[in-house]
Design brief:
By secondary structure, the chain is an all-alpha fold. The chain is 69% helix and 1% strand. Helix 7 packs parallel to helix 14 and helix 8 packs parallel to helix 10. One of its GO terms (biological process) is inner ear morphogenesis. It holds the Pfam family Otopetrin.
Length: 575
């Protein structure tokens, strides 16, 4: 362990590389052990109960809590030390997002505590200890990420690597546990719908983990049990966001950074009205579609087919709009000549890898649907809508990934410092001088050209004389020459006007895609999953194999939409 905070960064040295490898292997083994324990509980393995899984997760959370407390205490004692920060990591909007998900996760934990109290006679004590520990873990972890997500750790690097990677895989295991619990609930609902619709050719056994005793308060039990599953999507997003932020912190340990000024890019609603309006229309219509779908699906065969048809038509329309918007944005990028920022940036690299990696979940489901449509012997009418839907899902992610990755790698446009500090003096009717609007108004194309005022721009100088008196012919000649020279600078305004228009279009596209991705996150997150209810894939591939594929791919597909929305928010701020 290196104790000297001021020691040089040796991120590429042999001891630190070994520490990185050892800590990553520790985290992977931690995760695999928990993953197998989760799988054993899911398949009702002999000798493995839910209490064993929860005990393992509780232990991991307690270890992380101890490490975070130690790190926070050490940070308080060394508060006066100047520390390096990664300005790209832990953006404020990302912290606000994870805080929102954490608050809903705390509500979920309170529901679990209430559920345990009502069924305390037949539930293991670990089911009561787990939500309490998880709530404490959530509060401290959010505080830790708010205060230290940008840190570049240069002391106790070996120990910190193990602490951070432990936190990363603890959150991944909690994410896996949430995904599995929510997927089992969705699968049970799907099986109940199949029973209602009379599918006799599929062996249906409900995977019931319900307590084997009566509830003390029936009404409260119903509220808690139903409410828990509606809150799980937010809990799932919370843990995956926390794990990504902690992973960036782990990658930054011992890293050398170049000290340069980071320009703040706040989010502004100005100039994105069109994109916001169309995006809100898509969001509102999607919520309405999901409500109708959940009401109609499983009621009868006709109502289920109508619900599926309605979902596919709406999704096809939205995906087509998103493809068009993405293509327009990429064409604008092709018309611009701006270099890409290829500097080392762990946060940006992780964003790009997550976009492509998690998109594979949707691509897997889409190709499964396409093969099912091609190979199936019978094709109900509504299944044909699944073909363009699946093709558009693949194409839309191709285009959107390219747009986002190029956007986050593009260098921000820099404005000449001489122009920024310039104040324009114009000549109006002879030698009378008047001060025109500042550069900001000129740059945004809002300078007044009336009353015979002619702006004059040239490097590092001010056109005209500030004393306002009469002058020699030589001075007058120089002034006239400067005014004539300024005519060529009007091309600057025209070019700037075109640039502003392009930027405005790109911001509207980013805002529209941001709301569209939020809209497409809602249906699968809250149980609107035609991959379950379509039926064609289950006939072609078999019920159990297709359900396994859906349960493996769906969490990545859901995360892709939320991660894309977060990335597009950043693109909107940066553009």
């Amino acid at each position: 362990m290196e104790k000297a905070a001021g020691s040089p960064s040796v991120g590429g040295s042999c001891p630190q590389k070994n520490a990185e490898i050892l800590s990553s292997q520790y985290g992977i083994n931690l995760f695999l052990a928990g993953l197998l324990l989760t799988f054993a509980w899911a398949v009702h393995a002999v000798g493995i109960s839910k209490s064993h899984l929860l005990s393992y997760l509780i232990t991991l959370m307690l270890i992380q809590l101890l490490w975070m407390l130690w790190y926070l205490c050490r940070s308080c004692t060394q508060r006066r030390l100047i520390r390096d920060k990664d300005t790209h990591a832990g953006a404020r909007w990302l912290k606000c997002g994870i805080t929102l998900f954490a608050v809903i996760t705390l509500i979920l934990d309170s529901f679990k505590i209430g559920y345990y109290i009502d069924f305390s006679n037949c539930l293991s004590p670990t089911e009561g200890i787990f939500p309490v520990t998880h709530a404490v873990h959530t509060i401290l972890q959010v505080y830790f990420l708010w205060c230290h997500a940008k840190d570049i750790i240069q002391s106790f690097k070996t120990l910190e690597r193990f602490g951070v990677i432990h936190s990363v895989f603890t959150n991944l295991l909690l994410w896996t546990n949430g995904v599995l619990t929510e997927s089992k609930h969705q699968l049970n609902e799907h099986k109940e719908r199949l029973i209602t619709l009379g599918f006799g050719n599929i062996t249906i056994v409900l995977d019931d983990h319900a307590p084997q005793c009566n509830c003390t308060t029936t009404t409260l039990c119903s509220i808690f049990s139903q409410g828990i599953y509606y809150l799980y999507p937010f809990n799932i997003e919370y843990h995956i966001l926390a794990s990504t932020m902690l992973y960036v912190l782990w990658k930054n340990i011992g890293r050398k950074v170049e000290h340069h000024q980071q320009h703040k890019t706040p989010f502004k609603f100005h100039g994105i009205t069109v994109g916001m309006i169309f995006g809100l229309i898509v969001l509102t219509s999607t919520i309405a579609i999901v409500v109708v779908y959940l009401i109609q699906i499983g009621r009868s065969k006709i109502k289920s087919e109508l619900a599926l048809t309605m979902f596919y038509l709406h999704a096809i329309f939205v995906l087509a709009l998103m493809c068009t918007a993405g293509i327009v944005a990429l064409l604008i990028y092709r018309l611009e000549d701006r270099s890409l920022d290829n500097s080392k940036n762990p946060a940006r690299k992780l964003d790009a890898e997550l976009l492509v990696g998690t998109a594979a979940g949707s691509w897997l489901l889409s190709w499964g649907s396409i093969l099912a449509i091609i190979c199936a012997q019978a094709h109900p009418k509504y299944t044909w809508y699944n073909l363009p839907y699946s093709v558009l899902v693949i194409i839309e992610k191709y285009i959107q990934n390219l747009f986002i990755i190029e956007s986050i790698h593009r260098e921000q446009e820099k404005v000449n410092d001489d122009i920024k500090t310039l104040r324009i003096v114009t000549i109006s009717r002879g030698s009378t001088l008047s001060l025109t609007p500042s550069y900001k108004e000129i740059y945004n194309g809002r300078a007044a050209h009336d009353s015979g005022e002619v702006p004059c721009l040239f490097k590092g100088s001010i056109c005209g004389r500030e004393n306002g008196g009469g002058g020699s012919k030589e001075e007058t000649s120089q002034e006239n020459s400067s005014v004539m020279h300024s005519a060529s600078d009007f091309s600057f305004y025209s070019r700037n006007s075109v640039t502003n228009n392009k930027r405005r279009v790109l911001k509207n596209i980013a805002a529209f895609l941001f709301l569209c991705n939020l809209s497409l996150w809602i249906p699968p997150a809250f149980g609107c999953r035609p991959e379950y209810d379509n039926g064609l894939e289950e006939i072609v591939f078999g019920f159990e194999p297709w359900i396994i594929v859906v349960n493996l791919a769906m969490p990545f597909s859901i995360f892709y939409r939320m991660h894309s929305a977060a990335s597009l928010f950043e693109v909107n701020c940066k553009t």
